[in-house]
Amino acid sequence: MSTFPITKRGAELLKAELHKLKTVERPWVINAIAEARAQGDLSENADYDAAKERQGFIEGRIAEIEGKLSVAQVIDPAALDATGRVVFGATVDLSDEDTGAAMTYQIVGEDEADLKQGLVNIGSPMARALISKEEGDVAEVQTPGGTRRFEIIAVRYI
Prior knowledge:
The chain is α/β, with parallel strands linked by helices and 158 residues long. It contains three helices and seven strands, in the order E-H-H-E-E-E-E-H-E-E. A five-stranded mixed β-sheet has the order 5-4-3-7-6. Strands 1-2 form a two-stranded parallel ribbon. The mean pLDDT is 92.
């Protein structure tokens, strides 16, 4: 597995989720399985089946997060000095050339992406169009409704 970029904040969120899974969720599900076993016949015990299914999900998610963190390339946007270019982790202020609407996006890893919070995945069409551009440049983004043009107003590393 090759490395993948993630912001410092994204790595901290994954570590927090991993900690919760190991210290809260895993012990809870182990206890739920023990209680279901104590009820007797496991062949028709819905509580046991549900707890075992939940345990499988938790263990799978723990393995997935540990795997991702082991190959993650953590990037602190505040430590970047890309001389005004849009790079991974940069926060970009844009203006839609058609509507004049202002928007702000930060380019992040796929696990952190949340468009409602202005976090766009590095692999998204928007991020791909912005990468390597500078203030004043225009990025053309292919959307389902056609090509849209965005002027880059500012590039920040926060």
